[in-house]
Every structure is written in structure tokens, then in C-alpha cells.
């Protein structure tokens, strides 16, 4: 009885020479004088051609088809999406568009100007990325301004321009109208629940934070009791006060403001999530889900069969939240060391910290699908500001393009460092030296030190936030 | 130019001078086998066999001389190149190559006289713009 080929044999095709030798052996066994066949001989040439064709087919198709049946081998073969869909009922998350708020300021004597969705395109000079107006609005009479939502021209993670990007221009200029993408002190407040009340934020926070305000009892401002959690920490009760200053020592002031639902503007169980500093981005763009990420979600599927929730279940839920798509690219699931039954689910996107709305969406999705004995808390990691410095020597004629390329390269590198990863001096130098026009790189520092920077630690989750570059340039 | 004969075992092969025949025909005459190998060497561009992972140094295409400017120097060089190619065959001991213009413009005749492990033979190839013809004469090559 013929034996089945080993998996290794299917994954590693024979070479042309090996196939040729097999064919020669068959001919020789049947009496042909194969040892006399020289280059140029008719039968030798024919067998070489057959061996080449066989190897081409076997090496191009057999390993791929074989690997396509295994979640650990399928990534990169082109079979991963089909394997996920057919065997695990998981669809590859599509790429998402970046959505953000751009401020359009009108000078004196300009406006009002009515604009409609799609009528304006803003281009970011640093990256060349273009964003299209996504809603109708009116630019007020100047001096004035309006915040309008813009969506990236194409989907993908490259459309994650930083706040305060500087040179923004309208593709079709409107005289007297200037676009900018400032980041406020606070990002948008994401509300999960049915209450009509809102929060007003104030104060002067000095470092980045994430805050969740939870309503503990129903009522209007000053009647409803509430708690707050800073950076994924335990909830601290604020009582039934209408406002609190410097919560948790963060410099953040919170005021509850009644809505139309009075006298029950705030409903028990509602949450309000926000972060500081803010960002112009309200929904982060992401590339199509990678094969590796999809492979992980497939393996996580097995966790959904367990009677007790395990890490893989929460990883899967966080990555599979509807309408979030491929925004979630990193997930760390860890039981809280201090609070029984609390499960910290730390998530991040291709550009680092995710918008509050995305955090809330994942929180709601996960919470609805976990046992009542588990208390999941979805948070973004805290951010560590990273300032890169050093001296870059470049060609004088390419100075302008080098500066732009340095910004793009460093932004991409910092975004690629995972939660609690390490930012490396050697990697920074390597990336800078790959830029056309760069001649030398010296004295590279991270936050002023010529040392690698390790983010976070046990139980502390941190991700890097790139600050304005501090490189000096010399030209030749 | 002499070459060391590496083996006297010629074996057999399928008949093929300028193309495969509709029905394969086995060749047993060792002089024909060697001669056809030389003929195929003279019709294969250098490196063509590398595509099928065979000898990348095989071949010197005789048709490259069609429509080329033929001078005394060209003829001398072509004769040396064609002889060197033929002597690559393990079973060719020595030989001479004569390159001469044909009766019409663009035609030429190449005559190779070889001493092989199977005895002497002459290979004559008539080349014009469209065709390559070849035939053998066996016996003394002088």
C-alpha cells in the first residue's frame, strides 16, 4: 500500500535536477543508455524540459495548497482568507478610512460659504495624503471657523497624519479660507448608554491619560452618583457631586451637564470615555487585516468553545468588533492584579492609541459577550512621549525631501513599535540611512538619552507617542 | 585541435537534426548520434539550455551569420567558434570546420570534418534565411 507523502515533502518541492534524476532512473531501469546522454542529446533535452515543467507546477502550486490548510502555514500563501471563511466563519477585516476633523478658518470679509460633502479636498504637504469633505456645512463669515469631518481619499494605515500637521492646503483654494487639523486638549467623548446628559471637560492635564466616567446611580447632575477610572485603573467614586476637579491628580476637571432627559439625564451603567491630549482623528485608518492577524483570530475561535472564557476569546472579540474592522492591530489580555474578576483588555491600532469611540465600541461588544462573573475593561495603553534627536548629514540638493522622508520614516517606525515594545537607536539609524540623500547619522537620542527605550513593564501598558522631531541637519 | 575522449560508450538516442519527427525514431549509428549532437549545438543560441536547467554553455547558433557582413576575418572567426563548439562534445577528438559562402546572397555552407570515438565523419550544413539543412558523409575526413 502506497504511503502518504510527509507534510515536509509537500511543503518543500523537489528541484529540477532531482526530478530529472528520477526520470533518468525510470529510463535506466527500462534499459535506456542514460549514462551516454550528453547535453544536447534529444532524450536528455526532452527529459530536462519535462523536469523543468513538472518542478514549475509542483513548486508553484503544491506547497501553497498544502500550507493553505493550516492556520500556522497559510499566511502569505493567498489561502488564508478562504481558510478563515470556510472553516472558521471569519471574514478578513477590510481596510478602513481615516476620518478626522479639520478646522476651516475664514478671514475677515470672507464667507459665509456653503460647502457640500465631497466638494472640498485637503492635502497634507508632509505626506501628500488627501482628505475629502464628508459632510455638508457652512464656513462662517470671517473672522470665524468651523470644524468639519473629512475622510481619507483611500483606505489604509498611511492616512494617519499627526495632529497639527502644519501645511494643509485646499486642492481648489478658497481665498481667505485656511485649513488646519488641531488637536484639542481632549479628544471626543464617547458615550455608551441611553442617558441624555453630557460632560464638560476642563483643567490643564500635563501628561496623556485615558478616563472613563461611569454613572453609578440615575439622576440629574448633582443627584446621580458617578465614578472615574484613569488609565484602566480601579474606579474611584466621586459621589453625587455635579463636578470634580483634578480627578486622580491628572489636572482634569469633569462637570456633568443635564440633557433633555431631566430629571434623569444620567442613567446608571452609562459610561463616558475620553482621552487627553485630543487628536484630530475620530476613526483610525487601517490596512486590510494581515494574514497573520486573521490566522490568530482563527485559532482564537477554539476559545469560544470553552465553558470558561480564556484569553483567546477576548482577543477574538476585540479584533472582531463590527464597524471597527481592522483598526485593532494589537491586543493584550491580562487579569487585573488587584481587582478580582477584572480583565484588562489593552488594545491599540496601526497609529497607536485608538479614538475613544473605537474603545467604547469594543467595550460594548466584549462586555455583551462575556460571562457575568468577568468584568472586562477595554483600554488603550498609556502613551509615552518620544522625542527623537540627533544630527543628520545629507546632500544639500535633497535637503527638503530628506526632511519629509525623515518625518515619514520615524512616524512609521514609532507606530510599528508594539505595546511595551522597545525603541532602538540602531533601528533608527538604519532607517535614516536608507533615505535617499542621507549621508550620515550621528548622536541619536531618545528623549535625550543615547539609550534604547523600553516602554511599559509588568502590569503597565505603554505605547509610544512621537513628538516633534529634534534632529539637526548639516548639508554637503 | 585535439581533445581527450572521455568515453567510448555512445549508446542510442532519438533522431533529431533540425526538429523532432512526427514519430520518434531511435538512432543506433554512433556517428549519426554524435553528428546530430554537433548539428544541434550549431543551431542552439548560447545559454538556451539554461532555461531547462541544463548546460548554460551549450550552443553557438549558426544562423547568427545569416545577413551578417561576411569578411575574411568573420569567416576565420566563425570557423574557430564552430570548431570550439563541436569539440565540447566528449566524443569528438578533433576536427576542422570550413565556412564558405553559398551560391546565393545570404546563403553559406559549413562543413565540419571530425574524428570521433565512432570513427571519422563529415557534417555539412546549408544555411539560408529560412532554413538550416544538414547531411552527413561518413568515412575518411581528409
Descriptive labels:
heterodimer, A: 476 residues, alpha+beta, 7-stranded antiparallel beta sheet, 5-stranded antiparallel beta sheet, 9 helices, B: 142 residues, 4-stranded antiparallel beta sheet, two-stranded antiparallel sheet, 19% helix, disordered N terminus
In short, what is this structure?
The complex is a heterodimer of chains A (476) and B (142). With 476 residues, chain A is α+β, with helices and mostly antiparallel strands.
Structure notes:
- The complex is a heterodimer of chains A (476) and B (142).
- Chain A has 476 residues and is α+β, with helices and mostly antiparallel strands.
- In chain A, 24% of the residues lie in helices and 28% in strands.
- Chain A has helices spanning 7-11, 16-29, 42-67, 80-88, 291-301, 311-319, 356-367, 399-416, 425-433, and strands spanning 99-106, 113-115, 121-124, 130-133, 137-139, 144-152, 168-170, 177-180, 190-192, 198-203, 209-215, 226-230, 236-239, 243-244, 252-257, 271-276, 281-283, 330-335, 342-348, 375-379, 382-386, 388-394, 422-423, 438-446, 453-454, 462-466, 470-475.
- In chain A, the strands form eight sheets. In chain A, strands 1, 3, 4, 6, 7, 8 and 17 form a seven-stranded antiparallel sheet that branches. In chain A, strands 9-16-11-12-13 form a five-stranded antiparallel sheet, with helices on one face.
- With 142 residues, chain B is an alpha+beta fold.
- In chain B, a hairpin with a 4-residue loop joins β5 and β6.
- Chain B is globular, with a radius of gyration of 15 Å.
- The two termini of chain B are 15 Å apart.
- The A-B interface holds A 16-17, 20, 32-46, 48-49, 51-52 and B 7, 9-16, 20, 33, 36-37, 40-41, 44, 49, 51-55, 58-59, 89-91.
Amino acid at each position: 500500500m502506497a504511503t502518504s507523502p510527509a507534510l515536509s515533502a509537500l511543503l518543500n518541492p523537489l528541484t529540477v535536477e532531482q526530478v530529472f534524476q528520477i526520470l533518468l532512473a525510470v529510463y535506466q531501469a527500462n534499459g535506456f543508455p542514460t549514462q551516454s546522454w550528453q547535453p544536447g542529446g534529444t532524450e536528455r533535452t526532452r527529459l530536462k524540459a519535462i523536469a523543468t515543467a513538472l518542478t514549475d507546477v509542483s513548486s508553484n502550486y503544491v506547497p501553497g495548497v498544502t500550507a493553505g490548510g493550516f492556520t500556522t502555514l497559510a499566511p502569505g500563501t493567498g489561502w488564508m482568507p478562504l481558510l478563515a471563511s470556510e472553516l472558521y466563519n471569519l471574514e478578513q477585516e477590510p481596510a478602513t478610512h481615516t476620518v478626522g476633523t479639520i478646522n476651516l478658518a475664514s478671514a475677515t470679509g470672507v464667507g459665509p460659504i456653503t460647502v457640500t460633502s465631497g466638494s472640498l479636498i485637503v492635502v497634507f504637504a508632509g505626506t501628500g495624503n488627501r482628505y475629502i469633505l464628508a459632510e455638508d456645512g457652512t464656513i462662517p463669515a470671517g473672522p470665524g471657523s468651523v470644524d468639519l469631518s473629512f475622510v481619507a481619499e483611500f483606505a489604509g494605515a498611511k492616512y494617519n497624519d499627526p495632529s497639527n500637521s502644519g501645511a494643509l492646503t485646499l486642492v481648489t483654494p478658497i481665498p481667505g479660507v485656511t485649513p488646519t487639523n488641531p488637536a484639542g486638549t481632549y479628544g471626543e467623548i464617547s458615550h455608551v448608554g441611553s442617558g441624555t446628559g453630557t460632560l464638560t471637560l476642563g483643567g490643564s492635564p500635563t501628561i496623556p491619560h485615558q478616563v472613563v466616567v461611569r454613572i453609578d446611580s440615575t439622576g440629574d447632575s448633582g443627584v446621580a452618583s458617578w465614578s472615574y477610572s484613569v488609565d484602566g485603573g480601579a474606579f474611584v467614586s466621586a459621589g453625587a457631586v455635579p463636578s470634580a476637579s483634578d480627578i486622580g491628580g491628572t489636572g482634569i476637571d469633569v462637570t456633568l451637564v443635564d440633557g433633555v432627559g431631566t430629571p434623569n439625564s444620567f442613567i446608571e451603567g452609562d459610561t463616558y470615555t475620553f482621552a487627553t491630549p485630543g487628536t484630530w482623528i475620530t476613526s483610525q485608518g487601517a490596512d486590510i487585516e494581515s494574514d497573520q492577524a486573521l490566522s490568530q483570530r482563527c485559532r482564537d475561535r477554539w476559545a469560544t468553545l470553552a465553558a470558561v472564557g480564556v484569553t483567546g476569546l477576548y482577543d477574538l472579540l476585540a479584533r472582531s468588533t463590527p464597524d471597527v474592522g481592522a483598526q485593532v492591530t494589537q491586543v493584550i489580555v491580562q487579569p487585573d492584579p488587584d481587582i478580582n474578576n477584572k480583565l484588562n483588555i489593552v488594545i491599540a491600532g496601526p497609529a497607536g492609541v485608538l479614538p475613544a469611540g473605537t474603545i467604547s465600541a469594543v467595550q460594548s461588544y466584549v462586555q455583551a459577550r462575556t460571562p457575568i462573573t468577568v468584568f472586562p475593561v477595554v483600554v488603550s495603553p498609556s502613551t509615552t512621549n518620544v522625542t527623537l534627536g540627533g544630527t543628520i548629514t545629507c546632500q544639500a540638493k535633497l535637503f527638503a525631501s530628506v526632511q519629509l522622508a525623515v518625518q515619514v520614516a520615524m512616524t512609521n517606525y514609532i507606530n510599528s513599535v508594539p505595546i511595551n515594545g522597545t525603541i532602538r537607536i540602531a533601528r533608527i539609524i538604519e532607517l535614516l540611512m536608507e533615505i535617499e540623500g542621507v549621508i550620515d547619522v550621528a548622536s541619536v537620542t531618545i528623549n535625550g538619552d543615547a539609550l534604547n527605550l523600553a516602554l511599559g513593564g509588568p502590569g503597565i501598558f505603554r505605547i509610544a507617542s512621537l513628538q516633534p522631531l529634534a534632529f539637526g541637519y548639516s548639508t554637503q | 585541435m585535439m581533445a581527450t575522449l572521455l568515453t567510448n560508450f555512445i549508446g542510442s538516442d532519438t533522431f533529431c537534426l533540425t526538429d523532432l519527427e512526427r514519430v520518434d525514431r531511435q538512432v543506433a549509428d554512433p556517428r549519426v548520434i554524435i553528428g546530430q549532437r554537433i548539428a544541434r549545438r550549431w543551431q542552439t543560441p548560447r545559454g538556451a539550455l539554461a532555461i531547462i536547467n541544463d548546460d548554460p554553455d551549450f550552443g553557438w547558433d549558426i544562423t547568427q551569420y545569416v545577413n551578417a557582413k561576411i569578411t575574411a576575418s568573420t569567416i576565420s572567426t566563425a570557423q574557430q567558434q564552430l570548431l570550439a563548439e563541436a569539440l565540447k562534445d566528449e566524443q569528438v577528438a578533433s576536427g576542422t570546420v570550413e565556412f564558405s559562402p553559398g551560391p546565393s546572397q545570404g546563403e553559406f555552407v559549413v562543413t565540419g570534418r571530425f574524428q570521433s570515438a565512432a570513427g571519422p565523419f563529415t557534417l555539412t550544413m546549408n544555411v539560408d534565411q529560412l532554413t538550416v539543412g544538414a547531411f552527413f558523409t561518413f568515412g575518411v575526413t581528409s
